[in-house]
UniProtKB/TrEMBL annotation:
Protein name according to UniProt: N-acetylmuramoyl-L-alanine amidase
Enzyme Commission designation: 3.5.1.28
GO molecular function, one term: N-acetylmuramoyl-L-alanine amidase activity
Source organism: Streptomyces ficellus
This protein's UniProt keywords: Cell wall biogenesis/degradation, Hydrolase
Ranges of residues in domain N-acetylmuramoyl-L-alanine amidase: 69-198
Length: 223
């Protein structure tokens, strides 16, 4: 589920001059949003972070390895317009363990346990390596779920309800439409070789729960 790390994102043909207020691309002024995207490439520049800060009310912070995500300033530098649903192929402790492992190369923003408990491992403003596609990682929030794709009993009432509230909150924060074009499974990411959340994930049920949660009004950030 990871983003293939290719090192620092190359500037390519763009020539960025920082200092003196100049930013030039082929003689044209670089757009403001491109400058915002470039901040994390500048040595010594780092956005402020507060340890344990949450985006979802009621989540428990447990940090993923810094090797499994990268700094960003979303949605200012990358628009967030997708939620990607994953299934661990394992239990909740396993998900936390591998996402804390710097050698794993992948992590999601959230992990949802069978009893509905939610762990947040990466801030939504940052890019998690979860979808296996750089562009999708930059535009999405990833939610992992405890269980196995071939075990429908793993997808409990508590898990569905909690995950739906989480997804509804994300959609409210970023103006994401509550539909299957914008709330997708990992299997639907272009080029993926993953099959999760699998044939037993009840999309009709889940989307109804998300719509019901969304109708209750936008959920505010915990931070």
């Amino acid at each position: 589920m990871g983003e293939k790390r290719r090192g620092t994102k190359p500037v390519g043909r763009r020539a960025v001059l920082i200092g003196g207020g100049a930013a030039v691309v082929g003689g044209a002024v670089l757009a403001r949003d491109e400058l915002r995207r470039a901040w994390y490439r500048v040595p010594g520049v780092e956005k402020d972070r507060v340890e344990g800060e949450l985006d979802h009310v009621g989540a428990q912070w447990t940090a993923a390895s810094r090797a499994n995500w990268r700094y960003a300033d979303r949605p200012d530098d990358f628009t967030i317009d997708r939620v990607v649903i994953h299934v661990v192929q394992g239990d909740y402790p396993t998900a936390l363990k591998v996402f804390k492992d710097p050698g794993h190369g992948a992590a999601t923003h959230y992990v949802v346990r069978k009893d509905g408990h939610v762990a947040q491992m990466i801030r939504e403003l940052d890019v998690a390596f979860h979808a296996g596609d750089r562009g999708m990682n930059e535009r999405s929030v990833g939610i992992e779920h405890e269980g196995f794709v071939d075990r429908p009993q793993d997808f409990t009432d508590a898990m569905y309800a909690s995950s739906a509230r989480l997804t509804a909150g994300i959609c409210a924060r970023y103006g994401i439409p509550v539909d299957r074009e914008h709330i997708i499974g990992h299997v639907e990411v272009e080029g993926t070789d993953h099959t999760d959340p699998g044939p037993h994930w009840d999309w009709d049920r889940y989307m109804k729960l998300v719509r019901d949660a969304a109708a209750g009004g936008p959920r505010t950030s915990a931070s």
